[in-house]
Amino acid sequence: MKRTKLLLAFLLYVLSTTAQSVTGVITDAQQQPIEYANVVLLVQQDSTFIAGAVTDAGGNFTISASVLTVKPCLIQITNIGYKTTYQPIQAGHIGTIILEADTQMLDEVVVKGNLPVTRLKAGAMITNIEGSVLAQTGTAQDMLNYIPGVASQKGSLQVLGRGTPVVYINGRLMRDSSELDQLSADNIKSVEVINNPGAKYDASVKAVIRIQTKKPVGEGFGFSNRTFVDYDDKYWDALEQVNLNYRTGGLDIFGMLFLYQYKDWHEFTLTQDSYLDKHWNQLFQANGYNKTQNLIADFGMNYAWNSKHSVGFKYRYDRTPKGRYFSNFDTAIKADDLLYENSQSVTSLDGQDTQNSINMYYNGTVNDWDIDFNTDLLWTDEHEKQDAQETITPVTGTGYAQQVTTTNKTKNRLYASKLILAHPLLGGNFSFGGEFSYTNRTTNYRNKEGVLENDDNEIKEKNTAAFVEYSRELGNLQLQAGLRYEHVVFDYYDEGVLQNEQSKKYDNLFPSLSASMPIGNAQLQLSYAQDIERPGFYSLRSSIYYANHYTYETGNPFLRPSISHNVSLTGVYKYWQVSAAYARRENDVILSTVPYSEENPNIVLFKPINSKSYNTAYLTINATPTIGFWSPRFTVMLQKQWYTANTAFGMKDFDRPRVYMRWQNTFKLPANILFNLNTSWSSKYNTLNTYINKTSWGIDAGLSKSFFNDRLTAQLNGYDIFLTRRSSRISYEGTYYVMGKNETPNMRSVRLTIRYRFNQGRNKYKGTGAGESQKNRL
Q: Does the predicted TM-score (pTM) go above 0.90?
């Protein structure tokens, strides 16, 4: 009994000492949080180092140490541009510490444009942009292309090996990729890339990029203007964007007007082999264009009455008054290798859509609790009209003409809310919360000629989620673990009647875990995460669309979500970054084919289905040395899948690996001119049931120059200068169909961008959004 009491007393002592921690918030004189400030815990008597931490985006820090219970301690706080501060402390929350600006140091600082430093922290690969050569690369879109493991070009953003990321700017979810173009790289402080997001994020999110900008320039009125023109060998594009801000005290009022006219062209050859009642072969020669006009306007305001509390709202109006796809097709059709007929067709698709959205948020701290609450409302109306006119000339018999006209009206309504609570616990940080979204989508589809069936369907979906996450530092070891639960009720209605067979319920658990620590001069991070990709609502429809009189296309209300189990290992050593990952994927969505009907045995129907499970792996190596005024960046990625599918020619292995290489060069020239010369190359490879059967490479170049203390910036860029980025593939879509496509590249373009800004800093809006996975599916 005595031994038991001694053991119990020892355990209580250990728990009481290990659980001791000190937490606080670091701000400047304007009560703005200071990120990346160094906070060091020292013994007060002799200044012996005990432990340290770095503040997060909210200026918060947590330091754990058992010595807090037995010795008087103090903390030392340092950050570039501020005077070093010392303060005696005890265990617990010490409140807010205000750093005083060091005006003498600020006068002496000279930015030399060094190579950015990349490090691992709390499950993220963080690259510092401020003061580095990347601050002069142009826009955030341009700059992201230089971040290790990220590929960004002409509106496309990818995290290598993980796909399209979700992007946050100062904690606010980016809803439109144009925001990356409106944000200047020299206004960015740091970029975080998270390959395996934790439980706070929707389970469909595979990668996250978090952009932290520098402090606002000042109060009063500010604006920025962006104009660009782009020429792609045939057509001109034009964009005009104006951003307005007014700041006074804690009030921030902002707005944006965005006008864009875009037109591009396409030329391709397409072969279709359908193995139905006969072997039908179609050879298409196609050319045409896409044209879009877009108007976006936003307005919002937020108010921060101190560094601990902020509220706000944002309204966005997004209107496409005119969008058109137009294409000419000349087609030769063979039946069992003999010419059967020729056809000429003209297809046009005209569309208009309007989207309204509202975000409201509260972000604050009450005692030791951090609170982040968001509510989102979204409603869209889309109208499409497709007109296909065909003239068919058989080898034998009389020619004839056919017209198929369809109209499609779609309405989407989304309501979503999300709450996150965080609190220091046992020397670490504990957070939990929930998210709810309700989606309603109605579709009215009509074909006046009666070639296709009309369709009226409605989808109602409720998604309820709860999550918990805990992170803590144990010496040099950083641990983070989370668990997310999602309950989804999917109801499908046809002509107003609930269809029990298509309706579903899902209950899923998504664990995540990461551990990182230094080993010598290297930093290592091991992560595991499970994610999900729910089918887009377009893929779940039952209506049939018309391509030509041999080819129809439909959706599949029976599709199941795709689930992926991911393990990754990342390492950083000096200017080297290495990342390796393995994934087990289940129920990926692929296109397959079936005969349309017994009455029409020569028509093939495209339909999305779930694939069988398969494995995939990738390895990415980045090197970022610096040689005087030259900053080269090398990337090599190896990617491989192990996938087998049944095709028209029997079982086939799709396991050819992909090799991707990128060499980027930044040269700092006299007169503060920046010159970029970049090249990339990709091998042949397999992706699911498709074979990319040609290599592709390209060269891009750019010049940028700033004037009038960086208020005016001119940037000239050339993309795919030698017109070599090819697009060619063969798809084996089920046992009835093989398609090959060779596309003439239209990536070559020249773009001139002019920006002017006055007293223009980032707004302080902290809304993070809710229901993001549902928005993407809409």
A: no
CB atoms within 10 A of CB 691: 18
Return d(Cα 630, Cα 653) in angstroms, integer.
44
pLDDT tens, position by position, 582-606? 999 999 999 899 899 888 889 999 9
* DSSP string over 126-170: EEE-TTBGGGGSSBHHHHHTTSTTEEEETTEEEETTTBSPEEEET
Give the per-residue SS3 of 177-190.
CHHHHHCEHHHEEE
* Of the candidate ranges 85-99, 451-465, 652-666, the one whose mean pLDDT is the lowest: 85-99
Residue 108, pLDDT above cutoff 60: no
Q: Which tokens hold the place of 419?
A: 């709450």
Q: In percent, how much of the chain has pLDDT > 90?
A: 34
Tokens encoding 273:
């082999």
Which is nearest to 750 in space by CA: 714, 712, 702, 713?
A: 702
- pLDDT band, very low/low/confident/very high, at 16 (cuts 50, 70, 90): very low
CB atoms within 10 A of CB 532: 22
| Average pLDDT, integer, range 364-381 | 90
CA 613 to each of CA 161, 585, 654: distance values in angstroms, whole numbers, following the listed order: 18, 6, 13
Banded pLDDT at 2 (limits 50, 70, 90): very low
Which residue, among 325, 320, 386, 323, has the nearest Cα to 353 in the 3D structure? 320
Torsion of CA 22, 197, 682, 146, to 10 degrees: -30
Residue written as token pair 């990738």: 618
| 3-state SS assignment for residue 634 | strand
**pLDDT band (50, 70, 90) for residue 519:** confident
Of 659, 587, 653, give the one whose Cα is nearest residue 618.
659
Q: Which of 436, 438, 435 is nearest to 413 (CA)?
A: 438
Give the strand order in the sheet containing 60-64: 60-64, 21-27, 92-98
Q: How far apart are CA 472 and CA 480, in angstroms?
A: 7
Cβ-count burial of 15 within 10 angstroms (0-12 exposed, 13-18 middle, 19+ buried)?
exposed
What are the distances in angstroms from CA 153 to CA 108, 177, 426, 618, 717? 37, 11, 44, 21, 11
Amino acid letter for position 278? K
Place of tokens 């002799």: 46
Instruction: Determine the pLDDT at residue 344.
Output: 92
Of 497, 376, 384, residue with least CA distance to 439: 376
Reduced DSSP (H G I as helix, E B as strand, rest coil) percent helix, strand, coil of the chain, to 5 = 5, 65, 25
Compute how many other C-beta atoms are within 10 angstroms of the C-beta atom of residue 113.
18
| Structural contact between residues 320 and 260, judged by C-beta atoms closer than 8 angstroms | no
Place of tokens 């959706």: 555
Q: Does 264 have pLDDT greater than 60?
A: yes
Q: Which residues fall within 8 angstroms of residue 540, CB to CB, at 6 or more apart?
A: 459, 492, 555, 556, 557, 559
Report phi then psi at 134, rounded to 5. Answer: -70, -20
In the predicted structure, residue 114 carries a pLDDT above the cut 80: no
DSSP state of 560: P
**3 state DSSP class of 8:** helix
Beta partners for 279? 275
Note the pLDDT of residue 20: 64
- From the list 470, 480, 571, 471, the residue with the least C-alpha distance to 529 is 480
Which residue in 92, 95, 91, 97 sits closest to 72, CA to CA?
91
How far apart are alpha carbons 525 and 570 in whole angstroms? Answer: 5
DSSP characters for 499-542? -TTT-EEEEEEEEEEEEEEEETTEEEEEEEEEEEEPPPTTTT--
- Here the tokens at position 535 are 């089918």
**Among 21-25, 188-192, 389-393, 603-607, whose mean pLDDT is lowest?**
21-25
Given this model, what pLDDT does residue 746 score?
66
In the predicted model, is pLDDT for residue 133 greater than 80? no
Which uninterrupted H or E stretch holds 580?
strand 576-586
